[in-house]
Structure formats: structure tokens, C-alpha cells
Design brief:
Blueprint: H1 2-92, H2 99-116, E1 120-123, H3 130-148, E2 153-156
Parallel strand pairs: 1-2
Helix pairs in contact: 2-3
């Protein structure tokens, strides 16, 4: 009978050991799953942060490229304006007697007339260009009347002259 009790005790000990091993495996699997979720969440957060950092870097690079492109475009425009101003100053150094300068004045006045489309237009010019401007105004008024079919009164605004040099 002692042998039977001992065998029963051993059997019970094995059952307890198996149950303990099963509980251990369940707890271990739960802990592993829980830690795996924590690691996945941390990885996801780091991935999002890296993606955001990459987007910021790309955006900054694109902005720098746009700024450089705008700067280059502005330089080209500035160079064109400088060249035009130099040519205009070269043409005006002869007192406005050149035919090219006279044509340019006429076209500028005519463009102003087209834009304003008024019955009376006042033209400002440099004091040195008064004669050339008067001639250009007459030509522009004739051209305007021919093209638009409307007469326009053009006069020089001598209350304030444009500066000789800019």
C-alpha cells in the first residue's frame, strides 16, 4: 500500500509539473507577445520619425533648389534690365536725336495710350528729351487714331520732369 501511495504521489507530482510547465509556457508566450507588441510599436514610431525626417529633408532640398532657381532667374532679369538701361543711356547721350531712340519713345507713348485708352494723356519725360518727346507724341497720336479710330489729346507734363540719370 505504501507503494501505491508513492506511485499516486509521483503521478500527482507529474501532473502538477505538467500543469506548471503548461502555465509557464502560457505566461512565457503572453510575455513574448506583449514584448513583441512593445517592440513593434517602438519600431513603428521610429519608422514614422525616420519617414518624417526624410520628408523634411526632401522639402528643405526642394526649397533650396527653388530659391536657387528663383535667384538665378532674378539675376537674369536684373542683367536684362541693366543691359536695357545701358542701351537706353547710350541712346539718350546724343540728346535723343537717334532714329532708334525716337522710335522707342513713340512706341512707349503708343503703348501707354493703348493701356490707358483715355481721351487725354499727359507724358512725362526728361527736360533734355522734350523735343524728341513732342515729335514722338504726334506720331503716336496719329498711329493711335489710325488703329483705334479715336482721337487723343497728348501733352507734356512739364510740372515735374523726370531725372536725367537713374
Amino acid at each position: 500500500m505504501t507503494e501505491f501511495i508513492r506511485l499516486e504521489a509521483q503521478e500527482k507530482a507529474r501532473e502538477i509539473q505538467v500543469k506548471a510547465d503548461e502555465d509557464f509556457e502560457k505566461d512565457k508566450a503572453a510575455l513574448i507577445l506583449q514584448e513583441k507588441e512593445v517592440i513593434d510599436a517602438a519600431y513603428e514610431a521610429k519608422f514614422k520619425q525616420a519617414a518624417m525626417s526624410l520628408q523634411i529633408t526632401r522639402s528643405k532640398a526642394n526649397s533650396k533648389a527653388r530659391i536657387a532657381m528663383l535667384g538665378a532667374g532674378q539675376k537674369v532679369v536684373d542683367d536684362i534690365f541693366d543691359a536695357a538701361q545701358k542701351k537706353l543711356l547710350d541712346a539718350t547721350n546724343n540728346g535723343g536725336s537717334k532714329k532708334g531712340y525716337q522710335d522707342a519713345l513713340m512706341k512707349l507713348i503708343l503703348d501707354g495710350m493703348y493701356l490707358l485708352n483715355e481721351d487725354a494723356v499727359a507724358v512725362q519725360c526728361r527736360k533734355a528729351d522734350k523735343t524728341a518727346a513732342e515729335k514722338a507724341m504726334k506720331e503716336a497720336a496719329a498711329e493711335f487714331e489710325k488703329e483705334v479710330g479715336k482721337s487723343v489729346a497728348v501733352q507734356i507734363d512739364d510740372s515735374e520732369w523726370l531725372p536725367d540719370k537713374r
